[in-house]
Amino acid sequence: MHELGLCEGVVQAVRARAAGRTVSRVALRVGAAHAVDEGSLRQAFELVAAGTEADGASLLVTTVPMQMSCAACGAEASSNDPLAVCPSCGSVEVALAGGDELTLESLTYAPVPSPPA
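and the corresponding structure tokens:
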């Protein structure tokens, strides 16, 4: 489950940016080349974030597709499947590019309660 390792890095980055503030939402851009299972990623995030500034934060995941170029027919397409085949001719002779990013896109902080009057 490589999602756990990815989340360890994400939570480390979140903690560095949060500087003690409570985080309510974390937005990530994950390239399709990482082949993460979103359910496993959410579970790993919850586990790794426990007891940190991101404990209980929601996780918004945007998958970034890979770009595919077919050597057989020249078709161009995008794919979320690391084992992609050409959608035009069915060839497995495809070159995949991109989709390898893991970007902490944004953090949303929980509102700070007002002191009692």
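(Above: one complete record from the training split.) The domain at 3-109 is CATH 3.30.2320.50 (hypothetical protein PF0899 fold).
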